[in-house]
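Service request form, structural biology core

Requester: graduate student, group of Dr. S.
Request type: structure prediction, single chain
Budget code: on file
Notes: please return the result as structure tokens.

Sequence provided:
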Amino acid sequence: MNIESVREYCLTLPLATEDMAFGDDYLLLRVCNRIFACIGLADNTYFVVKCDPDRAVELRERYPDDVLPAWHWNKKYWNQLRLDGRLSDEVIRELIRHSYSEVAHKLPLKLRRELPALPDE
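Core staff response, request fulfilled:
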């Protein structure tokens, strides 16, 4: 996958939106105004997704060259994914869906009820 296909895939998820942030250097992908992915526009080989802490560590161990902690978010459960490495398109889409679901699961109950279910792949 390339960065544009990542962006396009993210926008197929229910109620996903995008906006520019941090001086137009980053594209934020949101569900109900909560960030689930971030694309740095200066470097088209990386993007950042949210991950529960245990899964974040497991992914970094399984893909040490392609999944890195995104320390600039100052939270260990954001992972930076490398697109020019060994991650398959299927793994990338699964990680995006997981990040989206992780964020959607923490929305207030009223918003979660309004959120359509993710379509099957």
